[in-house]
Write a structure and sequence with these properties.
Number of helices: 12
Order of helices and strands: EHEEHEEEHEEHHEHEHEEEHEHEEHEEHH
Oligomer: single chain
Strand order of the largest sheet: 4-14-15-16-18-13-12-7
Helix content: 25-40%
Distance between the termini: 57 Å
Number of strands: 18
Structural class: alpha+beta
Strand content: 25-35%
């Protein structure tokens, strides 16, 4: 093992750049960052100059990608003590956790709150309100059509079935994990990295009678990168309470604004230290970095972020406008309307983690509405 030292330009957005270092090469086994000096650990057989050039070329793309933070909402709260250990959360592996007790209660509570907020708004409007339950896996053909593999391929997790060959399968236990590829077919399915994709697949080639809102809870899977799972709330397997808007531009924009307003009111009600700011998707490929600036200018993406340490925030929800990207790709529309889409996703585990980091697991310290619901549910 050897270490390559690379001095980065002072204008590099290092907070974003270090998230993608592991995707440069699997020969990178670790890294450290001190000021603008990056120290990368690599295998002895790897050419140092090649790694250095690859790192510098990618880092250069993260100069223009730096975003100016612009909050559209903030609920400031002084927190004397943050919690970082929870008895009700068990980690199976990197980015994989189970919830029980108070954390499971909070998961269900937030899921139900966001569902009720959707009904509160859209049952009064002249639109279709549809509740769904979707499968976990997504056909590769649908995955490709969304354009996600082009924009953010680093998140992809594919599903492979075993080869239908008894001679091979009889010997599968005799082989190392690295040789399992001999026993599996090429993937026909993927684990969806975004909750809304199943909606577009189901509605493809259809003409809807009116503006439509689809809501559901969906399992979502992302390969966040092997150096990133140690970060608070980084999950490879989690749940999202999703709302998808399909209709004319005014309807979709207004729907997002109404959900933003009702989310702000909810954060105020339970008094979380949080903010909503203009954001962009985590594009990793250098050729996609220009879209960060486009998203920021267009204000097509907002994020709700909740603090989990002093000065540190985790994104727990996103509020997105897609334009006609999906209506064109999947050829669906609302009758007699120029149709666009938008979506909102509330990361349920992240909401739980962030809430517990501020309030802890003792329900006596929780905000009144959540405390009362917990007592009601548990008869205490």
């Amino acid at each position: 093992m050897k270490t390559v030292k690379i001095e980065l330009d002072s204008n590099v957005d290092t907070e974003e750049f270090v998230k993608v270092i592991g995707f440069i090469s699997e020969s990178i086994s670790g890294y450290k960052m001190k000021n603008n000096m990056l120290m990368v650990d690599i295998e002895d057989s790897v050419n140092e100059e090649d790694i250095s050039i690859a790192v510098q070329n990618l880092a250069a793309k993260y100069v223009s990608a730096r975003l100016i933070e612009k909050n559209i909402y903030q609920n400031r709260k002084e927190i004397e003590h943050y919690y970082n250990e929870f008895k009700s959360i068990y980690y199976f592996d990197e980015g994989m956790a189970s919830l029980s007790g108070v954390s499971l209660f909070l998961f269900r509570y937030f899921e139900n709150v966001f569902e009720s907020k959707v009904k509160e708004i859209f049952e009064k409007m002249n639109c279709n309100l549809v509740t769904k339950l979707f499968p976990v896996m997504l056909p590769i053909s649908c995955y490709k059509k969304t354009g996600y593999l082009k924009r953010s391929p680093q998140y992809a997790i594919f599903c492979c079935s075993a080869i239908e060959n008894l001679d091979l399968l009889n010997n599968i236990n005799e082989f190392d994990e690295k040789e399992y590829k001999e026993f599996v077919n090429y993937p026909l399915y993927a684990l969806s990295p975004s909750a809304c994709f199943h909606v577009y697949e189901e509605y493809k080639n259809k003409v809807l009678d009116k503006n439509t809102v689809v809501t559901f809870t969906q399992s979502v899977f992302r390969n966040e990168g092997r150096f990133n799972f140690a970060q608070f709330g980084r999950m490879r397997d989690y749940h999202v309470r999703e709302i998808v808007f399909i209709g004319d531009e005014d309807f979709v924009s207004l729907s997002r604004e109404q959900m933003l307003d009702i989310t702000k009111s909810f954060i105020d009600e339970i008094d979380l230290d949080a903010k909503i700011q203009i954001a962009s998707d985590p594009f990793i490929l250098p050729k996609m970095q220009k879209f960060k600036k486009i998203q920021t200018i267009d204000k097509s993406k907002y994020e709700l972020q909740i603090s989990y340490e002093k000065g540190k925030y985790i994104s727990v929800a996103s509020f997105n406008l897609h334009g006609n990207a999906f209506t064109h790709s999947f050829e669906f529309s609302v009758k007699d309307k120029e149709t666009v889409t938008g979506c909102i996703g509330y990361g349920l585990e992240r909401f739980v983690f962030a809430f517990l980091s501020q309030y802890g697991e003792d329900y006596e310290n929780w905000p009144k509405p959540i405390k009362q619901e917990y007592i009601l549910k548990n008869g205490e």
